[in-house]
Amino acid sequence: MQLVDPIKRGKERPENLAERIYGQLKDDISEFRLLPGDRFSEGEVAERMAASRTPVRQALYRLEREGYLEVYFRSGWQVKPFDFHHFEELYDVRIVLELAAVRRLCDRPAGETPGQLEELRQIWTAPPEQRPPEGREVSLLDERFHCQLVEATGNREMARLHREISEKIRIVRRLDFTKTPRVEATYEEHARILGAILSRRCEEAQLLLKTHIEVSKAEVRKITLHMLHNARERAVQAQG
């Protein structure tokens, strides 16, 4: 079990400590420090996090409820193996939400442009020399792009549901951004999508967006455990 620096023991309230352990473990999963199939015990987490077992157990059961972990009462915990069919279902829901968001954005009153779209345009039309390299930063920017499209509609429930889906597919999307060609394609595709939305070319924007997401969805079936181990090695090297 590979984790980053443990949480320091102090006078932190147990519920706050449980929240921090939960966030750390979720980050370990999305950043390949914990891979599907990895097993560990509550005691190992407590020791690494310098925490008692109570907040650790609270964090672990929360991750289990959200579908990240499985518990084996005689042999500890395991990072849940990939369920590719479930990932594809999540992608399908994501497409529905984002296409609906594009329709709402294109139907807004003339002259009204949400600030989120202007912010995104500055990021995704930046010249190549101003762009971050492939990896975590680009992955976070990509996730933020799609979340902000939905948030810009002003529908908080749509945005909440979309964020939850984005969290659940984060690990598979991260693999896309270990490949330079996918990074370059993402910048080009995002810029075209934004251009169509800002010009209120709704059908074009929806087609561009759906095609863009379908490419990412198709990559999910190509994921192997070997790819994940390679990603973990690169993550460890980057930290070193």
From TrEMBL:
Q: Which UniProt keywords apply?
A: DNA-binding, Transcription, Transcription regulation
InterPro entries in alphabetical order: GntR_C, TF_FadR/GntR_C, Tscrpt_reg_HTH_GntR, WH-like_DNA-bd_sf, WH_DNA-bd_sf
Transmembrane ranges, per UniProt, are: none
Task: Identify the residues that the record assigns to the HTH gntR-type domain, covering every copy.
Answer: 15-82
* Gene3D superfamilies associated with the record: GntR ligand-binding domain-like, Winged helix-like DNA-binding domain superfamily/Winged helix DNA-binding domain
Q: Which portions of this protein are annotated as coiled-coil regions?
A: none
Can you say what this protein is called?
GntR family transcriptional regulator
What is the organism of origin for this protein? Phytopseudomonas seleniipraecipitans
